[in-house]
Design a protein that fits this description.
heterodimer, A: MetI-like fold, B: alpha+beta, Rossmann fold, OB fold (Dihydrolipoamide Acetyltransferase, E2P), five-stranded antiparallel sheet, 9 helices
């Protein structure tokens, strides 16, 4: 199947993977930080942050993409600053597509991480510190292993969301083959082209296979993680 | 008494105020009191898990907390070992990895890991995950893990409270072994009189965030006010039976199986006790095991008779009275409680100051005390 891919399909697939993976990696540290704050601290205005994080989940994706375009476009307030200060251009680039992927997957990642962080027994952290472990060592040896199921679930959810992302992407970075044309966008283009049904069919198959592989990986990983954490199979 | 740990702390949370000034020395110091007395908060404050509002905590000459110099050492820098009620083993690590988790920060080990594994009988558990351990095994691992951090002092917060009676009996000998084998001072929090009598050398009694009594176990835990504070809330028992605790030494074992025991009241005899001559032990006498006689008894099967005078008498319900007996002897001779019927008091016409003979039906050694909560 992979060897049968046409160059155009191959480009769309690898771009999709690159965009989704980059999006997940970029959003992970922020997602962890926000999830930690939401799970472990309380302050006035926390509900506001909670709401803000969930916005991409409830606002129509095209609207999100348009908001991003207005603020991160080269004429937008943030976009023009990024361009002049760091020479970073997000709009109509694959980096922009990865940024969209990060934003759209963010609520899913935060939700999974937050649940996992809330489930950590603070007593274990106290025990580790009483045994002489610095906060860094506690993070690496206790917190990370214990949140790893949530971490994996969050990353895979965000990854899947990124693979399927359409509306916000097309609104923010357009549909440029080889740059921003991910699988769903390529599928859309194929279906818009007369005689493109054949290619469309193949892209649908590819998307389904990718989704199944991701799901299976998620299931296997979470089982392995459960075994590692509890020493039990189930 | 060298003070290992000196405390002068205040902390207020809502309407609860913890105010403790105490000097804690070598050996095992029991911290006992009803639930809500602030025992755990005190331990957590010493451990650095909770920050006091003001005051000073000094361990072995090192200030752990001092509000005047704004010192507040992080928990990992306090050189203390903690054993919690709920063991708190790391679920994703084997027993072995749990045991070796601690960093000693250049302190010499208390003992080699092999010895600690041996002493706590953990060698067959090393590869297991905490999930597959019984409650008693978990606590033993937690004790070993704390010891392997080479703590300057051990803080134990109700390590037996979550265990059933059988598991408590299983873990107790290991706690007693700690006292013999390691000289590390221990703060032992409990709401259980029996545990404290068996383990502690000294005791702090807490109520409503304050220390209400402190001193040697025999003196403090024999006090009826302390006993009713600790037992009073249990099962609506408004008149808990007083218990007398006294330290003693096994003098000799006779061929017929009887032991001579030296007590502050003279030599008593007791059958079937566990211990060797020369060993220091602690006796526990239940008030209902003591019979009173107004004349020197003769021709009785009871071997142990203590002469003294009647002290205070306290009502213990409508039909019974607790009588304090002051045995003859030098100042500081421990008193003992006898529970008798009101009718007996009237017929014998007991009055404070009257000569009295206390007859002991049974003597229980602290090491044989069951951990059922002194009911």
């Amino acid at each position: 199947m992979i060897s049968d891919l046409t160059p155009a399909e191959w480009i769309a697939l690898s771009l999709s993977l690159k965009v989704a993976l980059t999006g997940v990696i970029v959003s992970l540290p922020f997602g962890f930080g926000i999830a930690w704050i939401l799970a472990r601290t309380s302050f006035p205005g926390k509900i506001l942050i909670d709401g803000l994080v969930h916005l991409p989940l409830v606002v129509p994706p095209v609207a999100t993409g348009y908001i991003l375009l207005v603020s991160f476009g080269t004429n937008g307030p943030i976009g023009s600053w990024l361009l002049s200060q760091f020479d970073i251009r997000l709009v109509f680039t694959w980096q922009g597509a990865a940024f969209v992927a990060a934003i759209m997957g963010f609520p899913l990642m935060v939700r999974a991480l937050r649940l996992s962080i809330e489930a950590i027994d603070t007593g274990l952290i106290q025990a580790a510190r009483s045994l002489g472990a610095s906060p860094t060592r506690v993070f690496v040896t206790i917190i990370l292993p214990l949140v790893s199921p949530g971490l994996i679930a969050g990353c895979l959810l965000a990854f899947s969301r990124a693979l399927g992302e359409f509306g916000a992407t097309i609104a923010f970075v357009g549909n440029i083959p080889g740059e921003t044309q991910t699988l769903p966008l390529a599928l859309y283009s194929a279906l818009q082209t007369p005689g493109g049904e054949q290619m469309g069919y193949r892209l649908v198959m590819l998307s389904v296979i990718l989704a199944i592989v991701t799901l299976a990986a998620s299931e296997l990983l979470s089982r392995a993680m459960h075994r590692r954490l509890t020493g039990q199979t189930s | 008494m060298t003070a290992y740990l000196s405390l002068a702390i205040k902390r207020k949370v809502g309407s609860f105020a913890l105010t403790v000034d105490a000097e804690i020395g070598d050996g095992i110091t029991g911290i006992i009191g009803p639930s809500g007395a602030g025992k755990t908060m005190l331990i957590n404050t010493v451990a650095g898990l909770v920050r006091p509002d003001s005051g000073k905590i000094v361990l072995n000459g090192k200030a752990l907390f001092d509000s005047t110099t704004k010192t507040n050492l992080a928990p990992e820098k306090r050189d203390l070992g903690l054993v919690f009620q709920d063991a708190r083993l790391f679920p994703h690590m084997s027993v072995q990895s749990n045991l070796t988790y601690a960093r000693r920060n250049d302190r010499p080990p208390l003992a080699a890991i092999n010895e600690i594994v041996e002493l706590l009988n953990l060698s067959h558990l090393l590869k297991r995950r905490p999930h597959h351990l019984s409650g008693g095994e978990k606590q033993r691992v937690a004790i070993g893990r704390a010891l392997l951090s080479a703590p300057v002092a051990l803080l134990m917060d109700e390590p037996l409270a979550n265990l059933d009676l059988a598991r408590r009996r299983e873990v107790m000998p290991f706690l007693e072994m700690l006292r013999e084998r390691f000289k590390v001072p221990i703060l032992y929090v409990s709401h259980n009189l029996d545990e404290t009598i068996r383990l502690a050398d000294r005791v702090l009694v807490m109520d409503h965030g304050e220390v209400v009594a402190e001193g040697a176990v025999e003196n403090v835990l024999s006090r009826i006010d302390v006993q009713s504070l600790i037992l009073g809330g249990l099962a609506g028992d408004r008149h808990p039976e007083p218990v007398t605790i006294v330290s003693a030494t096994i003098r000799a074992r006779h061929d017929d199986g009887l032991y001579d025991i030296d007590t502050p009241w003279g030599t008593l005899t007791a059958p079937e006790i566990s211990g060797a001559p020369g060993q220091h032990i602690r006796l526990r006498l239940h008030a209902h095991d003591i019979v009173l006689a107004s004349a020197a008894p003769d021709g009785l099967s009871i071997r142990n008779v203590i002469a003294g005078e009647v002290g205070t008498m306290t009502e213990a319900g409508p039909a019974q009275i607790d009588v304090l007996v002051r045995p003859f002897g030098p100042d500081g001779t421990p008193t003992l409680w006898a529970r008798v019927t009101r009718r007996a008091v009237e017929e014998m016409n007991l009055q404070p100051g009257m000569p009295i003979w206390a007859l002991l039906k049974a003597v229980v050694l602290a090491s044989d005390i069951d951990l059922d909560g002194l009911r």
